From TrEMBL:
Residues 26-239 form the Nudix hydrolase domain. It comes from the Bacteria. Its cofactor is Mn(2+); Mg(2+). SUPFAM superfamilies: Nudix. The keyword Metal-binding applies. Coiled coil: none annotated. InterPro entries: NUDIX_hydrolase-like_dom_sf, NUDIX_hydrolase_dom, NUDT19. GO terms for molecular function: hydrolase activity. This is NUDIX hydrolase. Keywords: Hydrolase, Magnesium, Manganese, Metal-binding. PANTHER family: ACYL-COENZYME A DIPHOSPHATASE NUDT19, TESTOSTERONE-REGULATED PROTEIN RP2. CDD domains: NUDIX_AcylCoAdiphos_Nudt19.
């Protein structure tokens, strides 16, 4: 089905918003990164295609937004992410502004947030000592201390990169999608989705940031498990998994000619029932 019923308090809130009696909460700029690696050779399908695996985190049950759901690393833009002091390599913020459909300041903040949140929640750092190198190892107590300081906002991304002599590698990201949280929600995000490959030599963390469980999953496996009710996927995650799952390897994903579309589920009343209408393909609720 392409809608989710809104019973009880959810329906009442939706009806109040439609009637203009309640103003939606403003959506905060956010970024999320679909971190990819090629599937192992023994995981190829009947046609001999290996496909990709995606790094996913299960959000803690205590989280106010998407509690218990499997998601990609990501989070809100920190105002300091747009700081010009962030050492930068790759496409300039002006180029990203065109790709993301945003102003230059917002684009700079989104790309920096994508790199920062990926490190905070997976331990993977899309940065290097120069414009054509990438950090090979982010394990160790000193890296963990910096990761915790970033999470606690005791350290800005500019300060983190500066103290280590690193530059943010904007060229390792590709724009993928744009989702805006429905007006119904009390916490809303205006989120740009990016894709990136796991850098050679780097390892993801077992648990990090807001996660209580992590896993590398083939997109089809994640979708199948959601269908069985084993895991929870939100509509943006579900759709993104179906999209990247169509590619044979990571290089094909990164090399695709991708046009970013904007999606926002909306509320509607149908035959007296309040519903959240989902854009595009069907989303099969478990």
């Amino acid at each position: 089905m392409n809608f989710i019923p809104l019973p009880g308090a959810f329906g009442e809130r939706a009806r109040a918003i439609l009637a203009g009696e309640l103003a939606p909460v403003p959506a905060r700029d956010a970024a999320t990164v679909v971190l990819l690696r090629d599937a192992s050779p023994d995981a190829q399908d009947a046609a001999g295609v290996r496909g990709v695996e995606v790094y996913m985190i299960r959000r803690k049950a205590s989280m106010a937004f998407a509690a218990g759901a499997y998601v990609f690393p990501g989070g809100s833009v920190d105002p300091r992410d747009a700081d010009h002091a962030v050492a930068w390599a790759g496409p300039a913020p002006e180029a990203w502004a065109g790709l993301l459909g945003a102003d230059v300041v917002t684009a700079r903040g989104l790309v920096c947030a994508a790199v920062r949140e990926t490190f905070e929640e997976s331990g993977v750092l899309l940065a290097g000592p120069s414009a054509d190198t990438v950090v090979a190892d982010t394990t160790g107590d000193d890296w963990e201390a910096d990761r915790e300081a970033l999470i606690g906002r005791d350290l800005s991304m500019a300060e983190f990169l500066g103290k280590r002599g690193l530059v943010l590698r904007a060229d390792l990201l590709r724009p993928w999608g744009h989702w805006i949280t429905p007006e119904l929600e009390t916490k809303r995000f205006d989120t740009r989705f990016f894709v990136a490959a796991l850098p050679p030599g780097q390892l993801t963390r077992d648990v990090g940031g807001e996660a209580d469980q992590v896993a590398w999953l083939r997109p089809a496996e994640a979708i199948e498990r959601a269908g069985k009710g084993e895991i929870t996927l939100m509509p943006p995650t579900y759709r993104t998994l179906t999209e990247v799952g169509d590619f044979g390897d990571v290089s094909a994903v990164l090399g695709s000619d991708r046009k970013v579309e904007t999606f926002q589920p909306h509320i509607a009343e149908v035959d007296g029932e309040m519903r959240l209408i989902l854009p595009g393909q069907d989303y099969r609720m478990p």
